[in-house]
Amino acid sequence: MNNLISDLQKLIRQPSISAKNEGIEKCAKLVQIMLNKSGIHAEILRLKKGVAPVVYGEVKSKKNNSKTLMFYNHYDVQPVEPLDLWDDPPFSGKLKGNKIFGRGSTDDKGELITRIKAVEAYLKTTGDVPCNIKFVIEGEEETGSAHIDQYLKKYKNKFACDGVIWEFGYVDSKNRPIVGLGMKGLLYVELSAKESIRDAHSSFAVLIKNPAWRLIEAVKTLRDSDGKILIKEWYRDVKPFSKKDLEIIAREPFDEKSFKKEFGIKSFVANKKGLDAKKALVGGATCNIAGFVSGYTGDGAKTVLPGKALVKIDFRLIPQMDPKKQIQRLRKHLKTKGFSDIKIKVFHGEAAARTNPSDPFVSKVMEAADESFGKSILSISNAGTGPMFSFVNNLKAPCISIGSTFIFSRIHSPNEFARVDLLKKTTKCICLIMAKFGKV
Ligand SMILES: [Zn+2]
Asked: Ligand 1 center to residue 371 CA distance, Å?
């Protein structure tokens, strides 16, 4: 594990904010150099101008080239704002005790470094790797992986593999790694209502309709207060949990108390408890208001009748929900409820993916995780979204998430950090996965 910390610091200190196109090219180059230094052949792949490059790495195994394991990661990071809440500059890479601080320290540069170091360790000690290794490291994950599907299609043969280790994996508050078998999908839309051509004095509210009310009425028809989505046929294509899924969910620990404490909340949606809360986390669909704007929200009072109102909504999708079909269902719903004046703008749609728990790849990763961490947890899906469906669909390979992301490591927030002990354990775990995967 030569230079694990110093190499991670180097990566953190190179800003790479995809949302602002800041440092993207430089960071891709740095990753390429780092891969090369570790003995991994690396090149920069491009799609077209204006699209972040993918860094591709490859090592062929001398003794077993019949199986190929892919590591999917990303070198881009989230923006750093609000700046004043950081204790140190966001790209400091400062080491304090067991923690390395900085944007990207965990998400995803920390995860990437464990994989590079695992391959490097194998090459240095044995001169070989137990199976073929491929790295696909993209630069647009934090803005929604807009082009990964096109990259996967263009480089389908180059990327061919038998299994994918996903870009991250959580470690819970008791230091148990979570082996995740899926990601939820996402449909992100903006709904807007417009009435008068300009804001008006609010005394005219007796005559002029208020678009904020209009939008609130429309949004209110989408979901009941227990979180159930009321759009017709929204759940139609969803397959219920299998018996095995339910067994896995029941076994999965979930510390309701510390979860609530972390967010300062007293109860969950629909007062869910126990198994229901766990089922929702891994397999629940949502209709979430991400933001709502209209009229005046500044200091003091301003009596105004806004001319327009806008809401951003994200729907988490679960397996078998097709984003295109769901958009049609949403459109139809608004129309039949009498809201055809509400405009719909679609930002992003991607389907969910889930690897079959009986796939032999799953037990290999579980064994490796148990051996390196002591005890691991199997989870049928992460609660978040990632482009896993594109990988499964294009490469026909199972995807599993396992990694070093401590659940409270403040990813996407100020003072993001990575835990050194977890980085080291994960590197060992990745070595074991390679060994077990390559065993014939
Ligand atoms: Zn992220």
From this structure: 27
